[in-house]
């Protein structure tokens, strides 16, 4: 006996092959989508961690900027204090200068000389006086030249003063002007 299958078996096979093809095509696409989602999640986590690092670095930069401002403030204060200390040091060094200068001027005077005026402008010193003779003026200049506080001693002028001494009409005096340079500290040793 011959059996005839009247059911549409070819349609079922087509459906099965179509389903197999759909499943075979859907699995790689699904895997691809899953891989893409996983890659996106990894990238997002990396982006988040990098953004967190950037935020931390920006906070460190702000902290360092504040520290730099404080350092600059301390440097400017130090500079001002250093300048003040230098002024105080120079004033301490210079406070004894005039005393030593007057002492040198007084001890250098030989006999027969009278000082009538002393003018100081900066380091330049002008000494005016009267003497019995030219030798006394010369000795005074030599003594001034030996002083550690006086240098560049020069005779600017010397002239005969006819007026003489009061009460002594026969004595003729010499008027002189000496210029020199002064320092607050000794220039020569010895």
The gist of it:
The protein is an alpha+beta fold and 190 residues long. The chain has helices at residues 9-94, 97-107, 134-145, and strands at 113-121, 124-131, 150-161, 173-182.
SS summary, helix count: 3
- Percent helix: 55-70%
The structural domain count equals 2
Order of helices and strands: HHEEHEE
The span between the termini is 152 Å
Q: Uncertain runs with pLDDT below 50, 5 residues or more?
A: none
Could you tell me the strand content as a percent range? 15-25%
Describe the structure.
The chain folds into 2 domains: 8-95; 97-182, Gyrase A, domain 2 (2-Layer Sandwich), CATH 3.30.1360. It has helices at 9-94, 97-107, 134-145, and strands at 113-121, 124-131, 150-161, 173-182. Strands 1-2-4-3 form a 4-stranded antiparallel sheet, with helices on one face. The longest helix has 86 residues, at 9-94. Strand 1 (113-121) and strand 2 (124-131) form a beta hairpin. With 190 residues, the protein is of the alpha+beta class.
Topology, element by element:
Layout: H1 9-94, H2 97-107, E1 113-121, E2 124-131, H3 134-145, E3 150-161, E4 173-182
Antiparallel strand pairs: 1-2, 2-4, 3-4
Features:
190 residues, alpha+beta, Gyrase A, domain 2, 2 domains, rod-shaped
């Amino acid at each position: 006996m011959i059996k005839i299958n009247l059911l549409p078996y070819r349609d079922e096979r087509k459906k099965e092959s179509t389903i197999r093809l759909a499943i075979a095509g859907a699995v790689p696409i699904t895997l691809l989508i899953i891989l893409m989602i996983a890659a996106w999640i990894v990238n997002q986590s990396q982006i988040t961690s990098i953004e967190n690092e950037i935020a931390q670095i920006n906070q460190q930069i702000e902290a360092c900027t504040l520290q730099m401002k404080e350092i600059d403030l301390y440097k400017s204060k130090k500079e001002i204090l250093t300048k003040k200390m230098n002024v105080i040091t120079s004033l301490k060094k210079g406070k004894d200068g005039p005393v030593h200068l007057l002492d040198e001027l007084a001890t250098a005077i030989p006999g027969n000389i009278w000082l009538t005026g002393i003018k100081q402008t900066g380091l330049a010193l002008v000494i005016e006086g009267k003497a019995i003779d030219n030798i006394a003026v010369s000795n005074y200049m030599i003594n001034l030249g030996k002083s550690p506080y006086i240098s560049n001693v020069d005779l600017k002028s010397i002239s005969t003063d006819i007026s003489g001494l009061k009460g002594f009409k026969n004595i003729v005096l010499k008027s002189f002007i000496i210029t020199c340079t002064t320092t607050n500290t000794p220039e020569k040793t010895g």
